[in-house]
Amino acid sequence: MNLSLNVFLVLSCFVFLSGVLGIILHKRNVLIVLVSIELMLVGINLNFILFSVYLDDMLGQIFALYVLTVAAAESAIGLAIFTVYYKDKQSILLEGFVRARG
């Protein structure tokens, strides 16, 4: 089954925009913000790999591996901060970091 380039571009755009939407709608929940950032990175990586295969160049795939490495480190550090924050506040809401305007 041969899928065209446009199908994968729409898929990666959908994954990236769902990550952006998750950050916009759930600013106060730490866990959802971390998952949304990971979704955005997956959408970007899908574009790198897609164009790497389409252009027959390995550079995009190597760059995607670097981005995955940084994303894994970001997840580990983020979850460690999340654990310490939950132990301290007994909540995962970011009420102390987000200031109300008005």
Describe the structure.
The protein is an all-alpha fold and 102 residues long. It has one domain (5-89): Helix Hairpins (Orthogonal Bundle), CATH 1.10.287. The protein has helices at residues 5-25, 30-55, 59-89. α1 (5-25) runs antiparallel to α2 (30-55) and α2 packs antiparallel against α3 (59-89). The chain starts with a helix and ends in a 13-residue tail after the last helix.
What secondary-structure arrangement, pairings included, does this model have?
Elements: H1 5-25, H2 30-55, H3 59-89
Helix pairs in contact: 1-2, 2-3
CATH architecture classification = Orthogonal Bundle
Q: What oligomeric state best describes the polypeptide chains here?
A: single chain
CATH class: Mainly Alpha
Whole-number mean pLDDT: 86
Write down the overall geometry: elongated
The helix-and-strand class reads mainly alpha
Please trace the helix and strand order, writing H or E for each element.
HHH
Distance from N terminus to C terminus (CA atoms, Å) equals 55 Å
Question: How would a crystallographer describe the biggest sheet?
Answer: none
Separate helix tally: 3
| Count of folded domains | 1
Q: Work out the radius of gyration.
A: 17 Å
